[in-house]
Amino acid sequence: MSFRIGFGYDVHRLDEGIPFWLGGVRIPHPKGAVGHSDADVLIHAICDAMLGAAALGDIGTHFPDSDPSYKGISSTILLQRCRELLHSKGYEIGNIDSTICLQTPKVRPFIPRMRKQISAKLGIKENQVSVKATTEERMGFTGREEGVSAYAVVLIQE
Predict the structure, then answer these.
(1) pLDDT tens per residue across span 51-88
(2) Nearest in space to 21 (alpha carbons), one of 8, 5, 34, 3
(3) For residues 93-120, average pLDDT
């Protein structure tokens, strides 16, 4: 059995009046992430980690923001497509560990729903998906509530 690890990172600016999606869950907040798709940074980081583990490039390679067919698309669809890419190369997901970084809103109450949504879209068990959240203690762009970032590590196996 062959194991591989991938790392993913994503960041989006926050702006007023946009729906805020994290981990496939809509979070009530006056600001949302700006992007070509629904700008779900957590799912984008997980997608990049999955693709990176299999040496398949990054999310922008497979779903470019220059393609109008991805305008406003749910990132959960992109997540499922990344799973299909992994499966086509003979890989399965072992586990996912991820961290969301933002000052507000507090997302801890939404983490169980995020884990459920991600695991369902990937066809894996909830205990294979870890989602954590942290702040940057009011430092940097996330601390000033200008943006949100996410990090993910994914273990895959052949």
Answers:
(1) 999 999 999 999 988 888 888 899 999 999 999 999 99
(2) 34
(3) 97
Largest distance between two CA atoms of the chain = 48
152 pLDDT above the threshold of 90? yes
Per-residue pLDDT, 53: 98
Ramachandran quadrant class, 69 (left: phi over 0; alpha: psi -120 to 50; beta: rest): alpha
pLDDT of 151 strictly over 80: yes
SS3 at position 143: helix
Query: Could you give the CA distance from residue 11 to residue 147 in angstroms, rounded to a whole number?
Result: 7
Separation of alpha carbons 120 and 115, rounded Å: 8
| DSSP codes of every residue in 82-115 | HHHHHHHTT-EEEEEEEEEE-SSS--GGGHHHHH
Count Cα atoms within 13 angstroms, Cβ side, for 126: 7
DSSP string for residues in 18-70: S-EEETTEEEP-SEEE-SSS---HHHHHHHHHHHHHTT---HHHHS-TT-GGG
